[in-house]
Amino acid sequence: MSGSAALEYGFPSTHSTNAVSVAVYALLALNDPSSTVSPTMKLFLEILSYSYATSIVVGRVYCGMHGFFDVVIGSLLGAVISVLQFLFIEDLDNFIQDGSVKALSIVILSICVLVRIHPEPADDCPCFDDSVAFAGVLCGVELGNFHYARSPLSWSTPVPATVPFQLEVLGWPKTILRILLGVSCIVAWRGIMKPTLLKALPPVFRIVEELGLSLPRRFFIQASEYDNVPGHLKTDNVMPSASDLPNIIDTIRHPGRRASISVGPQSEADAYEALAFRQRKRRESLSSVVETNASRDRRVEQEIKPREQAGLARSTSAENGAPVLLVSQSRVHSTTDHLGDNLQVGPLTANSGGIVRTPSQDRREDEKDKKEIFSKLEKPRVRYDVEVITKMIVYSGIAWLAVEGNPILFHYIGLGINGADVT
Question: Against a cut of 0.70, is the pTM above it?
Answer without folding.
Answer: no
